[in-house]
Design brief:
about 15% strand, alpha/beta, 5-stranded mixed beta sheet, about 675 residues, 8-stranded mixed beta sheet, elongated, DHBP synthase
Length: about 675
């Protein structure tokens, strides 16, 4: 059963609903305590679901909500001064069409029974980072692809716990180049899904080298031919309540863009794109220092900072402390909007985030009910941390379902798959089991007290690393002990385990280390490829049966052994294959519909072009006729003038003859 915690009076509901992606609800108390946060995808089971949050708001205690904080502006508007002091690339020709919410956006909001306050989208991003960082003051940096009704796609803010946040500099979508858009388009160009698979490019980049030709092509798209670039992808089904909105890659435009990269490998394209993106961010921050904006600490938020390698480059600029919003993408703006509204009220007391466990939780009785429903054989174990450590040491892969679900894009131990990190082959094995294609190794989990033995350059970024938001160079010990989680460039994206915040996983790693002498284990999200992270006990069991994990540990001390349940798994997979076939048919139907829509648009364009040609020919013919008539009128006018002169001459002759007659 899905349930949210008891809410105090005057709670604030943060909402990200764009009609496009990452619909999310977050709730904070009047004092700023985070009570609940969840994205729609976790219960709809559609990744990055952007439909209205109806499922999240079923049977909702509206009497407890004082305000709905909406993570964008109420109306679209244009800034009087769009100039940035730090963004290095103003557009040669401004974008003519701003992002504007359709009428459906306001219509849906009007159905929600509480007052609304609208908060700038970029301010929501930095709010989601700063108020969780624990910093007294910092520079805050947001950067994404922009949002409807908001004129900005990023900016720099001064933040402190007394005065809140003040904009130092913002990037107008109408006047400046967006590196986030370039990254999304190249993701689609290489055959991946924009807005979902950018992380694959980050991992792929380590296998390539920067290419001079590729750099020229990318910079031309980024700085000059951005209209062509951005038109390659477009949203379909926006604001739909039945079909989840999706980004559609125009295949004809993709093919034409791909021709510019002929002869360049995917690896080199990814490497060059990553280098350009890192340089862009570094340039902005160096320009900020030239403006005199010098800070010891920095907070990062927005989709661009899902790029963990960029975050490492920012830390290496010399900031003493760095924190990245754990929900750095648009789901985090729901939380940021609520925290911003709460920060304006007396009694606000935001504190350093210890966990991201703000989602739904399920009791041991609910877990037992689901196990019986699927007919699974299971064991109750008294010392689960030690038992699981034994399984890991023996080479087993274990799914973990416990406590409240994580908020944000990372699984942090409550909805995770864990295993030993001693063999590089485990990456291929896990990818095969989970039907994934990854170019970056899975993340390591390491206890906080062991971190410096495993990673370099940690100082000041330990808190960020608790949420798996930044890479570090690995020590030689780490490379020897845990090669499965070390990338080809010698880096890893760790989750540092704090005993207070993660007591169960901490105990598992402690027991594992006592048995093996190894500091780290593998952590990857508990989900099958292209599905969201699991939410419920049923999701966990279905994921377990589908992927063939060795063991499943569930809340309440329940341990399920796959070997004991192979017959059930086989029967489930046979049913699931039928469901998968139905899903495939649905996907094919959607693709056919999109192809027909595109063909219809092209036909309409062709018809319109024919009409325009006919009208143009008619207009030309009419112009020529008018010109001919003008010549005729000119000739008639000349003849009339000649006739007038002749008449004047005759009149003079008549007057002369008349005078002679009188004489």
């Amino acid at each position: 059963m899905l349930r949210i915690p008891e809410l105090p009076n005057h709670s604030i509901l943060g909402l990200n609903y764009s009609g496009m992606h990452d619909t999310t609800v977050a709730i904070v108390s009047p004092q700023g305590s985070i009570l609940f946060a969840c994205s729609l995808e976790r219960i709809s089971r559609v990744k990055q679901d952007g439909r209205p949050p109806t499922l999240l708001l079923q049977d909702f205690p509206w009497d407890k909500i004082e305000t709905i904080a909406v993570s964008t502006d109420q109306q679209a508007w244009t800034p009087d001064v769009p100039r940035s002091l730090v963004h290095p690339l103003p557009l040669k020709v401004p974008r003519l069409e701003p992002l504007i919410h359709g009428g459906e956006f306001r219509q849906y909001l009007d159905t929600l029974p509480a007052p609304k306050e609208f908060v700038c989208h970029e301010l929501c991003h930095v709010s989601s980072a700063f108020w969780l960082s624990g910093f007294e003051k910092s520079l805050c940096f947001s950067y994404d692809g922009g949002m409807s009704n908001c004129p900005w796609f990023g900016g720099l803010y001064d933040a402190n716990r007394i005065d809140g946040m003040k904009a130092l500099d913002r990037f107008a979508a109408s006047h400046y180049a967006k590196i986030a858009s370039l990254y999304a388009v190249v993701t689609g160009l290489l055959g991946f899904t924009p807005l979902k698979h950018e992380g694959k490019l980050t991992g792929l980049a380590a296998y390539g080298s920067q290419n001079a030709k590729c750099r020229t092509v990318l910079l031309d798209l980024f700085e000059h031919d951005y209209d062509t670039m951005e038109s390659m992808i477009e949203w379909v089904y926006t604001y739909s309540d039945s079909m989840s909105p999706m980004l559609f890659v125009n295949e004809e435009k993709r093919r034409k863009l791909a021709e510019r990269f002929e002869g360049i490998s995917k690896e080199d394209i990814a490497a060059t794109l990553q280098r350009i993106s890192e340089e862009h961010v570094v340039t902005i921050l160096n320009n900020a220092r030239d403006q005199g904006w010098r800070y010891d600490s920095i907070c990062l938020a927005g989709g661009l900072f899902a790029n963990v390698r960029i975050n490492q480059k920012v830390k290496e600029l010399g900031f003493r402390n760095l924190f990245v919003a754990p929900p750095m993408t648009d789901d985090g703006t729901a939380l940021g909007a609520a925290l911003h509204i709460a920060s304006q009220k007396p009694g606000f007391r935001s504190s350093k985030a210890e966990t991201m466990f703000f989602g739904y939780d399920f009791s041991g009785a609910e877990v037992a009910s689901s196990l019986h429903e699927f007919g699974l054989k299971f064991h109750r174990i008294d010392n689960p941390a030690n038992v699981i450590a034994d399984k890991l040491a023996a080479g087993a892969v274990v799914g973990v379902f416990q406590g409240r679900m994580e908020f944000g894009p990372r699984a942090l131990g409550n909805r995770s798959i864990i295993c030993q990190a001693t063999q590089s082959e485990i990456n291929n094995e896990l990818n095969k089991r989970l039907c994934r294609t990854e170019f970056m190794p899975f993340a390591p989990m390491t206890r906080l007290e062991d971190a410096k033995a495993c990673y370099e350059g940690l100082d000041g970024a330990e808190h960020a690393a608790e949420f798996m938001t930044i890479t570090f160079n690995c020590t030689e010990l780490m490379k020897r002990q845990s090669p499965a989680v070390v990338h080809v460039d010698g880096t890893a994206r760790p989750q540092l385990i704090n005993e207070k915040a993660h007591p169960f996983i901490y105990d598992v790693i402690t027991a594992y280390q006592q048995k093996t002498g190894i500091h780290s284990i593998v952590n990857t999200s508990f989900n099958i490829h292209e599905e969201p992270i699991i939410c419920s006990p049923s999701d966990a069991i279905e994921g377990f049966l589908t992927s063939g994990l060795d063991f499943l540990y569930m809340e309440g001390g329940y341990l399920v052994d796959f070997q004991e349940n192979q017959d059930i798994a086989l029967a489930y997979l046979q049913r699931d294959r039928t469901n998968a076939s139905q899903k495939e048919q649905r996907i094919q139907a959607i693709n056919q519909y999109l192809a027909k829509q595109l063909e219809s648009c092209m036909t309409q364009l062709g018809e319109k072009e024919s009409v325009i040609n006919v009208l143009a020919a008619a207009a030309q013919e009419r112009l020529e006729l008018l010109q001919e008539k003008e010549k005729q009128i000119g000739a008639l006018a000349a003849a009339a003038d000649e006739r007038l002169q002749l008449m004047q001459q005759k009149d003079q002759e008549i007057r002369r003859l008349s005078a002679l007659v009188k004489k």
